[in-house]
Amino acid sequence: MTKLTDLTIRGALDGLAAKEFSAAELAEAHIQAMEAGRDLNAFITETPEIALERARESDNRRAKGDALGAMDGVPIAMKDLFCTEGVLTTAASHILDGFTPPYESTVSANLRSAGAVMLGKANLDEFAMGSANITSYYGPVKNPWKATDGKDAGKDLVPGGSSGGSAAAVSGGMAVAATGTDTGGSIRQPASFCGIVGLKPTYGRCSRWGVIAFASSLDQAGPMTKTVEDAAIMLGAMAGHDPKDSTSAPMAVPDFAAALSGDVKGLKIGIPKEYRMDGMDPEIQALWDQGVNWLKAAGCEIKDVSLPHTKYALATYYIVAPAECSANLARYDGVRYGLRIPGDSLDDMYMNTRGEGFGHEVQRRILIGTYALSSGYYDAYYIKAQKVRTLIANDFKAAFEDVDVILTPTAPTPAFALGEKQEDPVAMYLNDVFTVPTSLAGLPGISVPAGLSKSGLPLGLQLIGRAFDEETLLRAAHAVELAAAFNHKPGREG
Ligand code: GLN
């Protein structure tokens, strides 16, 4: 029998249905793995009591023959950006010290109704700002993978970010699946770095209610899983219209897993020429070419497409996201939430609290965002960025007249060593080059593990779909997954 901590969502559901193990046993195995994996720092808060209680509830439902949810008894990690009623919620920031929400985010509530069992709150970059999970107040997360060759052999690597704890938990066998959020790549890039599947749904597919806001026009929750089928199952459990979020789309939730027919014959796959960057690492290019060949062999038609405004995407994102974050983070004033550092006057108290409560990256973004929104610069930066954002979205619209799905690499490199790029924010921002355009256009994107780098580290391929067409996207991703047959596991002892 498969080790309990190696199970997928599908495998766990099948095993529970066949009574091979109980939900309590499954939770217990993951709680032990979570404890054994503490050196990775993937969790900010472990909630073993909650996990065991929910697992027992699931076992009782099964014993009584009650109706079961789509993830009944499946243990998951919850990114610590989702508010969870009665459970410490930190956004990995000092400023939210001691914040225990009196409410539950819609997505985590949906997962609970689907029977999922929460193991704990996963570490992340502070307020989800970062690409390496090194900006967390609770310390960096380590990638369960280690390079077997090259300059980083044997060193601790970053798991990617911002959903680095979620990715490490799934890849390290500490959770069957995890929630992530993606504003400019935070689900897809860590999935690529940790050798798992990460799906950013269409903006509006999953409710943002109760998800601590970073950049409201970009933030979107999604599943991080071991397989594409699991991503389909979990998305179904997370998604749905929510009247509490005005940007949540009033759309029915299809049976995503049923879309994985395995048949992609005749599907048109676009290859955007602007993503062939100068200086692209040859192994990333080779992986991309391999992806094209796999889809061609599966019967897809490959077409070149053009996304001419791609080169402006990073610059646009790093205006829009900081601008929105500076507005969203204005609420942390030492009065209503978490940390308060006293001062001689109210202004001093604000300054002390925000000066101490926010880390450097968050402060940098607030400064950039406030600058871009200030009078005199608003038109030059913010309005300009919004216009370019529309051009980027229009590029995709035009491309999707000709193709059904777009294929690109997920990230320009495999996971890098902990400590690298730390002092160079621009080098860090460049990690998002392939993921940010999708986010600006609000489209769904998925990263599928597709191969290993020369140094023995996982590399992901990204597929991008039409708005609200996650079904076709998942179908194509499944074809890549089948062809890649990626079955490598992190050699933690290595
Ligand atoms: N790395 C990007 C950033 O730092 C994306 C983060 C995210 O998607 N939350 O903003």
Characterization of this structure:
This protein has 494 residues and is an alpha/beta fold. It has one domain: Amidase signature (AS) enzymes (Alpha-Beta Complex), CATH 3.90.1300. The protein is built from 15 helices and 11 strands. Strands 1-3-2-4-6-5-10-11-9-7-8 form an 11-stranded mixed beta sheet, with helices on both faces. The longest helix has 25 residues. The site of glutamine has 13 residues, from loops. Glutamine binds next to loops.
Find the CATH topology: Amidase signature (AS) enzymes
Helicity, in percent? 25-40%
Strand order of the largest sheet: 1-3-2-4-6-5-10-11-9-7-8
Spans of 5+ residues with little confidence (pLDDT < 50)? none
The biggest beta sheet reads: 11 strands, mixed
Structural class, by secondary structure, is: alpha/beta
For CATH, the homologous superfamily is named as Amidase signature (AS) domain
What ligands does this structure carry? glutamine
Determine the strand fraction and express it as a percent band: 5-15%
Counted up, domains total 1
User: How does the overall form come out from the CA principal axes?
Assistant: globular
Order of helices and strands: HHEHEHEHEHEEHEHEHHHHEHHEEH
Give the tally of β-strands: 11
CATH-derived architecture: Alpha-Beta Complex
On the 0 to 100 scale, the average pLDDT is: 96
Our count of helices gives 15
Terminal-residue CA separation = 25 Å
What's the CATH first level? Alpha Beta
Cα-based radius of gyration, to the nearest Å: 21 Å
